[in-house]
Model the fold of this input.
Amino acid sequence: MRIFTLLLLLMVIFLVGCDGAWNNPYPAEESEQNILYSSFQERPKHLDPAISYASNEIVFTGQIYEPVVQYHYLKRPYELIPLAGAAMPTVSYFDATGNELAGAGEAVAYTLYEITIQPGIQYQPHPAFVRDGDDYLYHNLSESEQAQVYTLDDLPQNDSRELVADDYIYQIKRLAHPALHSPILGLMSGYIDGLAEYSKELQQAHKSGEWLDLRDYSLSGVERVDRYTYRIKIEGSYPQFVYWLAMPFFAPVPWEADRLYSQPGLIEKNITLDWYPVGTGPFMLTVNNPNLQMVMERNPNFHGESYPTEGEPGDKVAGMLVDAGKPLPFIDKVVFSLEKESIPYWNKFLQGYYDASGISSDSFDQAISFDMSGQMGLGESMQAQGIQLKTTPAGSIFYMGFNMLDPVVGGESERARLLRQAISIAVDYEEFISIFANGRGLAAQGPLPPGIFGYLKGEQGMNPYVYDWVDGQVQRKSIDEAKQLLADAGYPGGRDAETGKPLTIHFDVTASGPDDKAWLNWYRKQFEKLGIQLMVRNTDYNRFREKMTNGNAQLFRWGWNADYPDPENFLFLLYGPNGKVNHSGVNAANYASVEFDALFEKLKNMPNGPARQAVIDETVKLLRHDAPWIWGMYSVSFALYHEWYQNLKRNMMANNTLKYARIDTELREQRRAEWNPPVVWPIALIVLAILLLIAPAFIAYRQREKRVVS
Amino acid sequence: MIAYIIRRLMYVLPILVGVNILTFALFFVVNTPDDMAHMQLGMKHVTEEAVDNWKAERGYDRPLFYNGEQAGLTTLTDTIFFDNSVRLFVFDFGQSDDGRDIGHDISERMWPSLALAIPTLIIGLLVNLTFAMLMAFFRGSYVDLSGVILCVVLMSISGLFYIIGGQWLVSKILHLVPISGYQPGLDAWKFLILPVIIGVIGGIGSGARWYRTIFLEEIARDYVRTARAKGLGEQMVLFRHVLRNALVPILTGVVVVIPLLFMGSLVMESFFGIPGLGSYTIDAIHKQDFAIVRSMVFLGSVLYIVGLILTDISYTLVDPRIRLN
Amino acid sequence: MALLANNRAFILFSGLLLVAVIVAISVPVKWVVLWTDALIFALITVILGSGWLVRNKPYLLAPWRRVLKRRLASAALVVLLSYVLIGLLDSVHFREALPPQVGSSEVHYSPHTLSVLDKLLTPIRIQEEKSYSAPFAIHLFSKESTQREDGTTVREYPRLQYGGAHLEDIQQRQTDITHTLLMASSYSLLAWLLLSALIIWIMAQRYSLSYRQQVERLVRGEMELPWRTLLLTLLAVMLFAFVAMMLGVKYHVFGTDKVGQDVLYQTLKSIRTGLVIGTLTTLIMLPFAVVLGVAAGYFRGWIDDTIQYIYTTLNSIPGVLLIAAAVLIMQAYIAGNPELFETMEERADARLFFLCLILGITSWTGLCRLLRGEALKLRELDYVQAAHAFGVPQHKILSSHIFPNVLHIVLITLVLDFSGLVLAEAVLSYVGIGVDPTMHSWGNMINGARLEMAREPMVWWSLMAAFIFMFILVLAANLFADAVRDAFDPRAQH
Done:
């Protein structure tokens, strides 16, 4: 007992000895440093710019690699500006005989993009650049030397070199590397001249375990003009290509790094470009422990960039231009901690240990309140904490697709179309958004989300097959209308008019989480409104994918995030030749309409403008009529951030935004201490209760002892 | 002694082979290499060619058990099974499906697991012993009765409630410790203290009750009566004799679980964000990472068997009457 | 069981069965027997059958009497039986006929499978709100934008569609609840008095005592079995049932979940899942464990070696991983053969069945090893050796000497494993390898609640309801199991 008390006392002393809040998950010495705290939910799988595609990876690659162009941080609609490039790429069009044309049009045989980069940009310090006379110090490590390397830090010397056009060319060649499986190789092979053949050539040349020096193999589609200039040749015209140039797929990769990482002893220990990226960007990855923490620190060789001096109207008032013209980046370090569960993440955010947060649906009530006019704002408790809120359309769509190859719901027959329209009315996405997304979304009117060219607001943008325009607002058609459509389709009351058999629709989902039961039930309720029986077929992702590829699904949920802000990136999800079953493409609904395909091919190459809008309107009208998807919802992206976090503006396209962030560390320190006072008295109470519980026993024991003695 | 251990080890081999064949078959029925490839390559713009490449690179394009294209012994060795299983016997776990070195990951994640499991085990043992002694000492009185009832009540609460409740109360309301996370080194204590306490409380019910039974069995023995007859005080009897003798079954029971401590606690680690082997395993299950799960199964089996052998040995050490033969 | 051991009870039971069959045939529904249903009824038949067989064997009944004599154990039994009753009602499934279609004589059935419990709980089942509401609330838990008549939009807590909808003035809620509570209590007290009177009358007949004497004996606790405790527990159970039902149709006693489903309904539905996992798991693997364990111990030699090899191998694989792998396989099987499982309930049930099977595979080894040890001991006993010497055939020795003497071990394992399995279900569901996410289970409820705990203000009622119901079941099971072990284990009689 005495030892126990002593221990407790020691513990209390120890705890009191720690200054600041007890529940600070970070080391005490970090508190005053200029660090941004963020989290990652899942270990990023790939950091190699040729492979990385997932949004959780681009958080890292975006800060490290610098493509030639970037999205302007503040301006909307999204606008591309040069990053590593000295200017925007120049585009010129040519016909089959090689004559330059005035602009894009039918006659274009190929397009040339000429890109000039800024001179004098240096890479981050990296062992791959260390020279040893004419040779490189670490490029030919012996087997025993390789065996002693466990992390990149075991190669102690670092050096740098200037960024040149060849590095960009090298990366484009890497897209075709047979060992890398770049996810965009298939897509790019259709555009970059000679890439498909190049990929085959490399396949022949590639021997497992040996480094393939891509500089020795030339690719017809890229051409080095001088030290700082290169050209890319695109077959036909592909106006969306310039958007790809803003992604890390087209960032520079120095051949030295590729050479260093090709040594088998290093590959074995994961010392590869996938894990240790090398870039010219404002930050470099210094700690890569995906089990715990990833840390990015300021790149000492960063070429310098300054905060934008102009933005959208209103940015100035919003304080977004306070730092205009100041050198970037503002913070020294970004610490990403592994946080798998949303609850600890949210709580740590409220305690001030994360600087910014998205909002999980279940924490929403506290976060957001609505004023009298229904405008969203922050909840009182959050306002009291000085937390700020920013919202923006996420440029993504979550839809339910019908398998158009299915005999019941699919096909071009009038019957199936009416059925699809009836279901589209019945599935009340407004309710879905309010229950499951807590208002963080817009019910979709068609395939194009807001923020993408072609999206229309108000009555013009309404889907007349599902909604009516009532008193200046869209209103979902009544369920009676849906029932009428269903009856017209030959299923009065959800029963087949001829056989009387109840209509059953299979819904294929991948659900395993605790929250999934709720939405499955909700979907069932929606179909019950029409008397249709919804059979949920739940399976794991692999089986689901298999079903989709074989066309065995009937109804499914899917989503799409924009790669770039162009309607082509959404409409191609419904393009016939992209059909999933027949062409293993991305058109999961297997929608194939000659009319649509023709319209799509037309609008694809058009520049944004009224003419394009007209074609898009026609396309969208056709799609709404055919209803291959229940359009579902456009999600709205929310960001909450603390008052010490400056310059945050949601930008759904740009991925290199950390350089703009500024942190007021003093304020943060102060708030954390205010918000996390340790409460000790319940512990004391528990100890007391235990003592009270044991005391009678102890007394009884003493009495018994006495009895034994006497 | 040494001969015995060697004999036991010989017995271990067929078990490990059996474990391997079983898990291998299980995982390849569930998860064909095609599935794995798609899982790893992501879902945007994946071509069949990329899938084939991925499989070829990891040797998953070969047959499972028998390769008819090869001649002689290589019909058996040039297969997925041979390649993936035989290496395990020298603890070469190979790479996970997303290309990380499993052996390295295991050696790294082992420490947080141990940092959580060892204090939980030791403190839990001490608390349970104290509690059980208390009940045995006051056997038959209200302390004993309420103790036993408390044990049953504690046993009847799902471990998940302890975790959810503890995390909510201590971290969220009282601000005493960080909600989750981990720091390597000495800083780890503030992350571990809550899971350890919860682990100990969760284990009191069954542990203390079991130890109490052992104590009571021991107290009923003749030598205790003799000791009492000698005039030894109750305290002396209990500490000097009963505790000592009861420790034999208790400690040997503990020995079995010691090697398994390496495997970590699945639920606790993922709730508290401790980067140990338990959360490693759970993540692998969720990601359906075949290579990791198979390695963990193998490791778990080896550790279990090591535990059994250790138990046998510890029996002989504490009780010279038992001979190993 | 002891109660059934007389003919009158048997006749009563057969009569009830007959009535049930007649009702079953005459009602216009399509009866559905799920896999687990079939097993549950097999289990019930086995239990009743063995009850019938042992009714006149006092030496076999004696341990059960010892169990029932314990007050805690008999109270636990009453609680357990009421859980079992709910579980059984939830195990009789059917599909209702859809209203006939004009011009078609063929009867079509709803694709949704309901159980008798669903039917009994119909008001609670179908009274679905829009989203969360607190216990006894009459408003939704979160504000919503609603349009007033004058055209302005306000954020307010909307009234629930069902919970407290009968109230004209929200001020009346307190009085209404109190009133309902009193009514329910008096009904349950009345029902309990009638039932007790009947039981006392039967007992008075049996012991040829006057009614008054019998009451006195009972109140003073002079009966052989603790009838006083039994009846009092019954009162508690009935009180709860009446209160829950009468309040449940007017309010959401335990609130509603995210999609507005009544939490009381969910937790009652979860009972069956818990019971099935707790009992069928052991039951499914029982034949293997018994046959292999006894064979290993009795025959020894290579049979012993093989069986030991099998169970050591199985045992050395970490259970969770084996379960994970098996659950994934089974998911693949269900996904690959959708024609076998017509409704969602059938799919979920198939998964539950497989889960029991897998849990069984991972947990039978312990029992098998125990039985092997016991058989090893038994075969050396004199009378077995003697039977051997007299040339009694092996199967006869096994069936008449070895098998009956290991039964108590089987029984003890069965009851001891029960609570552990119920608890395991929750953890497995957390790991994502438990029962189907669409199935009602405490594990799924707890998992859902983890997200709800992060809400502010907190949504605590799902967790609370699951906790209470699960805790009571496991506690009762633990108490009962302790008594069974003490009564049957020859070693533990001190």
About this structure: The mean pLDDT of chain B is 80. The radius of gyration of chain B is 25 Å. Chain B touches chain C through 39 residues (CB under 8 Å). DSSP finds 14 helices and no strands in chain B.
